[in-house]
Amino acid sequence: MKNLIVGCGISGVTLARLLAESGEQVVIIDSKDHIAGNIYDYYEDGICVHKYGTHIFHTNNKTVWDFVSRFCKWHPYQHKVKGLIDGQIVPIPFNLNTLHAVFPTSMANKIEEKLLENFGLNVKVPILELRKKDDKDLQFLAQYIYEKVFLEYTLKQWGQTPDEIDPSVSGRVPVYISRDDRYFQDKYQGIPIGGYTAMVKNILKHKNITVKLKTPFDNNMEYNRLFWSGSIDEFFNYEYGALPYRSERFDFITYPYDKFQDVAVVNYPCNYDWTRIGEYKHFLNDKSDKTIVSYEYPEAFQEGKNERYYPIANDKNAELYQKYIKLAENKPNVYFFGRLGDYKYYDMDKAIARCFEIIKGLKS
Ligand code: UDP
Prior knowledge:
Blueprint: E1 2-6, H1 10-21, E2 25-29, E3 41-44, E4 47-50, E5 57-59, H2 62-69, E6 74-75, E7 81-85, E8 88-92, H3 96-102, H4 105-118, E9 123-125, H5 127-130, H6 136-158, H7 167-170, E10 175-177, E11 188-192, H8 196-204, E12 209-212, E13 225-228, H9 232-235, E14 245-255, E15 265-267, E16 276-279, H10 281-284, E17 291-300, E18 310-311, H11 315-328, E19 334-336, H12 338-341, H13 348-363
Parallel strand pairs: 1-2, 1-13, 2-12, 7-15, 13-19
Antiparallel strand pairs: 3-4, 5-11, 6-11, 7-8, 9-10, 14-17, 14-18, 15-16, 16-17
Helix pairs in contact: 1-13, 3-4
The chain binds uridine-5'-diphosphate.
């Protein structure tokens, strides 16, 4: 069986490994000159820099965690994000600590009581849900968070308001009625020691896997089964038009001093044109007398100009995607997967779990 995998990102390499371990021969190609897709990182000035923006591994799925843990040792990093709100650097997602940081004590106490009464402790409430409450204090709070945390950030990120985009997107960062300042509460979280590229290299280290970089797919390539982690519209030559994506531009700056900010990521919802600044040495506690940061500017994806980062979930795009899925039904030996192949906003763990599903499907 000739298995051809297109794309060396986390999805492609996971699938390559799973196939290889079941005794199959695999060729995996990528048009880029490096492995690891958008989780690619590299060392500069002793700091592990994520070329395509900050990536934090987190999952509740033990099978996924056990799988990746075979290929790296973990630095037990717990992600904390802060945001500049009303001139203060406060915890994001908005939580009880944020509440007490931005409001006078008596006001914060009153709102905290209302939140606990209505929802309870350690409960996550998407902002769009909080806005539906008809209590006037909760209304006030919801409007404050909507305006100060979500509205302008989302306009920069998506070119649309939180009400216009799919609710699952702002729901990724729910208001958290808790004193827990972490961005994720997953059981397993961390950064691979040595970086993601080193981890991916280990995933690909198998006698049944052949890696070919700087190798775009072409129709003359031979295969019995093709696994396509590129964008599904590209496979079908954009027959019904292009599926839209958001992209990012990262401006990297090296500063000649130890630390730029307290945490790895600081969001700027209401100020500047960037959405956030990432400082890379925080992830692995890298020691350097310099520091490297990236200023993140969202932009529309344009073929040939930048990379695809985020599928844009809405009814119109779902309809277009379904048209391509219909075409895919006529190609039983082609499998679409990954963020681009499935046109889904997967986190890394979900992308890996999806590969387990594909392998199960092949066996049944
Ligand atoms: N978001 C926001 N303000 C923030 C953080 C997030 O408005 O301070 C919204 C925004 O629409 C963003 C979405 O929540 O695109 C998901 O955020 P997440 O941090 O999960 O995005 P990612 O890290 O995947 O880019």
